[in-house]
Design goal:
Length: about 140
C-alpha cells in the first residue's frame, strides 16, 4: 500500500515504496533543509492613524456663488469653504470641521432660498402678476 502524508513527497513522485524508514529519512531531510520553520512565528502590527476626511464643500459653494447667489449667501459659503480647506492643509482638523459645518449650513440656506425665490419668480411671471403694475400705469392709475 502506498500512503501519501501531507508535507512529504508522494510515493507516485518518488517512485519508491513508502516505509517507516523512508518517512523518517524524508522528515529529517525536511527539518535539516528548513530549520526556521520550527521557530515560533511572530507578527508585528503597526497602527497608522488615518486622517479623518473633512469635506469642505467648495464645489457646492462655487455652484451656489455662480448660480444661486441670493443675498450673497453663496459667496459667504465659498469663503468659509476656502477657510476650511486652509485649516485642513495646516492640520487643524477641528477648525476645518467648524468652517466646513458653517459652509454647509450656508450652502443649504442659499440653495433653499435660491430655489424658493426662483420658483416664486417663475410662478409670478407665468401667471402675469408682474404685469399688473404696468397695466395700472397704462390705464391712468398713476
Amino acid at each position: 500500500n502506498l500512503i501519501a502524508l501531507p508535507g512529504l513527497p508522494s510515493p507516485a513522485r518518488t517512485q519508491r515504496p513508502l516505509s517507516l524508514n523512508t518517512v523518517q529519512q524524508d522528515h529529517q531531510a525536511a527539518v535539516m533543509e528548513n530549520p526556521q520553520s520550527l521557530a515560533p512565528k511572530t507578527t508585528t502590527v503597526i497602527d497608522i492613524p488615518t486622517e479623518t476626511p473633512v469635506r469642505d464643500h467648495i464645489v457646492w459653494s462655487l455652484f451656489n456663488t455662480i448660480f444661486l447667489n441670493w443675498c450673497c449667501l453663496g459667496f459667504v459659503a465659498f469663503a468659509y469653504s476656502v477657510k476650511s480647506r486652509d485649516r485642513k492643509m495646516v492640520g487643524d482638523v477641528i477648525g476645518a470641521q467648524t468652517y466646513a459645518s458653517t459652509a454647509k449650513c450656508l450652502n443649504v440656506c442659499s440653495l433653499v432660498l435660491g430655489l424658493l425665490l426662483t420658483i416664486t419668480f417663475i410662478i409670478l411671471f407665468v401667471t402675469g402678476s408682474l404685469m399688473i403694475p404696468q397695466m395700472v400705469r397704462q390705464h391712468g392709475g398713476y
